[in-house]
Batch of 4 targets.
Target 1
Amino acid sequence: MLFEGKFANEGNAFDNRITKLFGIQYPIIQAGMIWASGWRLASAVSNAGGLGLIGAGSMYPEVLREHIQKCKQATDKPFGVNLPLLYPDIDKHVAVILEEKVPIVFTSAGNPKTWTAKFKEHGITVVHVVSSAKFAKKCEDAGVDGVVAEGFEAGGHNGREETTTLCLIPSVRESINIPLIAAGGIATGRSMLATMALGAEGVQIGSRFVCSPEASSHLAFKEAVVAANEGDTILSLKKLTPVRLMKNQFYKQVMEAEDSCATTDELVDLLGRARAKRGMFEGDMNEGELEIGQVSSIIKEIKPAGDIVAEIWNEFKNVSAAPFTY
């Protein structure tokens, strides 16, 4: 066995620190992506044995409450909320999470010290997303229960260090003792096995779940992801918050602005308001902001989230027995 953990029930489940931490069957977590990760996707992944996350980053507090309540009705399995800490009025989102007694919270894009203690006071399991070993250690010191180490390949907001997943995971593993989840460039059982061989104990997957009927993203965006090839995404907007974008007319405007040494304020003006909603949720493939990972180039079909979980798990299980068989 290349990783810590063991198959249980004749291979139909897995037993390690991640599955125990969340009370789930498989160490597969669906990322809480903006404009894609509502209650339908989260509940479908949880019902399939993974951990579904509601993406609070694109929700007003009362919309988040609605999604949490609907998710409770749709699944009796554990689920959580992904909460970006950079948003204004974050205290209102926190209040909703506490009032609704959400059992698991994944925080990102901010200082884990800010809210971890508060969540822990209410018995909530807390995981924070990082892009470097240095910040992973700070998360452990802040008292989180686990860390997601997200590599350069990932979609959406990314780290300035541009460290790839296969380099990041062993580095983070050496720096912390708490459970470690790998993210960035993972869409198959083989890539899951690769990261777990390097020290991860579970995986967080975003882009693959975008291409599911349950994802709330626009069909035009899903079809664009399926049609994507190598080199169709790029990390940009580094003067603001680095974000991996699919190449389109908006991306070209960003590149032209950055090539012209645009100021931060000029980039903010170019980005404007609701640019991501316009692209990923409303389906404007030209002028919208399209956040997706490099792994989009190997995603070839839209399929139910439960089938995606089963496909990843079965490949992981089979390849674990014979990792070099093709």
Target 2
Amino acid sequence: MDPCTLPTAERPFRLAEFDNLFAAAVRRVETLGPAHARLHLSGPAGLEATVRDLTARETECCSFFAFTITTDGDDLTLDVRVPDRYAEILAALVARAVPA
């Protein structure tokens, strides 16, 4: 069974949304375990709303993701957790998020 219900044709667009967010806002990535990562972001006004919208839509189709967003001024922390059986999916997402 596919863990994601997002239609296949829409997946490249969602991936591009994450890539754009990561390129614009990720400052540091911490892998806290195989099923938990923390992304530190900062960016333009509206960043929190963008992250909340994207993670809410992702949770709708991939319910195994648990996103927690905390803010400190202009900085935002995004904790991403998955069940252990989806650790490879989290690892792939983290690999895309690591700043160049």
Target 3
Amino acid sequence: MRRSVMFLVLAMMLSASSAFAQLTTPAALNNWPQWRGPEMTGVAPKGNPPTEWSEEKNVKWKIEVPGDSTATPIVWGDKVFVTSAIKTDREGEPAPPPAEFAATSAEPAKGKRGFRTSGEAPKNIFEFVTLCYDRATGKEIWRHVANEAVPHEGHHPDGSYSSASPSTDGQRLYVSFGSFGVYCYDLEGKLLWKRDLGRMWTFNSFGEGASPVIYGDNVIVNWDHQGGSFLICLDAATGETRWKIDREETTTWATPLVLDAAGHVQVILHGSTRVRSYDLATGELIWACGGQGPSAIPTPVSDGTRVFAMTGFITNTLYAIPLNSTGDITEDETKVAWKSRKIGTPYVPSPLLVGDLLYFTAGNKGILSCYNAATGEPVVEKQRLEGIANIYASPVEAAGHIYVTSREGNTVVFETGKFDESGDKKEVKLLFTNTLDDRFDASAAIVGPEIFLRGRKHLYCIAAP
């Protein structure tokens, strides 16, 4: 029996390791297969898109996308994949949770309200849809209605019922609509499997948002909510559960970061009470570090030695945690590489790591900071980016340029690692401010000479003629 268990763990570790090699092949690096790109840093290693555009310049195509979504598009080969929630004119009742999850899916008390919500749950049926578009033309290739349901709760006025970005390993497409199911398709749109993990009840009915992550033959889904949180690992080929770990967390919106470091393939998941690392092979806890704040949304990034976790709602925290940590290091701050509680860290956007430079914005505002990732020394501190008012999209980088997109439709571009000095103060120099006629909450995806921008109404492909 022990030998069988050891064999299973070894097989999973080998599977994960081979997938890590697969995800850093030229094919993967030339695509945008998941939230935050091929290396989950926000960087497009092979990207070289335009730095200037407008509605009249460098728009290769622009299409209207049905429904509503804040999810980032992903790209593989000649296909672009997006998700959407389409409100219909039909009315109905919310579906009850499956019997096996009834104990953890019943609506809990939510405590004090005091933040904006969308009010009561809707009465209309929504279609939860995956769409595939031709990368060259924007023409729809296929769409699949994964589910039709009446949502059991509302969402934040700025959110949507389709906030999780899809992911692909180049063979299969993985889509999470959270409470409305997790789905796997082949790239031609054939449904291969689906899972119902229950119902989420989110803090203040703010909605759901964590994206599925693929590593080897594993799909990892964060299920943090008010009714019994867990992290689950599914078999990528079948959707069957490999392991499921309960979490002492309430609602978060953080997508896990998965990487091979310090002798483990680590699944690193942000939380309001702890940042935790789990062993992908077994689900066992490797390390944990407290000191975080509420509303854990930004996905951590890593330089291969440290992981950088930050929150920017109510409290501003940034922790650089060594990947070779073990156990709960919360009470021993000497084991943290460096930390800060006084800088402008993000609320919704995730940070951007380019080499040894860590870029991030303050709250949901266009206020930029840049720190040396190894030392924690500031390079740029709270520079206001002209033309950028409010931000939900995360910054991205390609070919020596960083792109920051605002909710109002502006994208500023500046050079990576280059700063103007005025006395003892350093700032980035904005090269271009590009404006489109839409609102942007989804992060950009960069593939080769193209940048894909998902607005609340349209999907743009930006490319030079």
Target 4
Amino acid sequence: MSEVSSILIIAQRDLLKFLRDRLRIVSELVFPIVIIAALGGSLQASIGRQVGYDFVIFTMTGVLAQTLFQSSAFGIISLIEDRQNDFSQEIFVSPVSRYVIIFGKICGESMVALAQGVGIFAFAVLYGIPFTMEQIARMVPTAIVICVFGGSFGVLLMANIRSQRAASQVFPFIFLPQYFLGGVFSPIQNLPLPLEIGSRISPLRYAVDLMRGAYYTGTSEFPLTVLDPPLVTLALCGALFALFMVVGTWMFARAEANR
């Protein structure tokens, strides 16, 4: 119970910080909404009939997964803020497992990302994208998995970054290629071999494919939009989460011990 309480306290702190930052709330909702409406709508008008599925829906599922994954990962930048104001030193000397502390940070940023996901979902409904109760029932737990997966990836990236400035430079370099290699905006079924290799090592690919699997399962568009069976993708996400969590936490804890 003490470990659960520690996780909830750390998670609550990050969620409250987000809710008090109105500019961040607005800015992180505007970008995905614009991408869905502008890019998805333009692609649907130009090539939607040729590919055999609605490009607005295709873009929505990709952007939703990308937002959840990236927001959770980028939110772990608060570890750097905590390191700079010595808050991390205070929590790391507490009698709580370091994995509990890191998982609490991931849970907090996952809650923040899910709040953004609710905003994207509300916009999609208003935009006229159809959802069935079965699709929603699959997408909700999928969203949670993607958030936790993204948070673990953020821990791995942030483990040895010393400043927010460095993090701001590293994150675009890490994530921008994944927008295309992960298939957020465009189909990636027939990539050249070098790009296929890059796509396979891109964590965002699996987040996007998992969300599309949740939406398109049971529809005629499934073989056109989903790359791998959802259960296979889920297993890969679980394995990568465990790897990122263990390695990232170990690296971050070692950096703290050497300060």
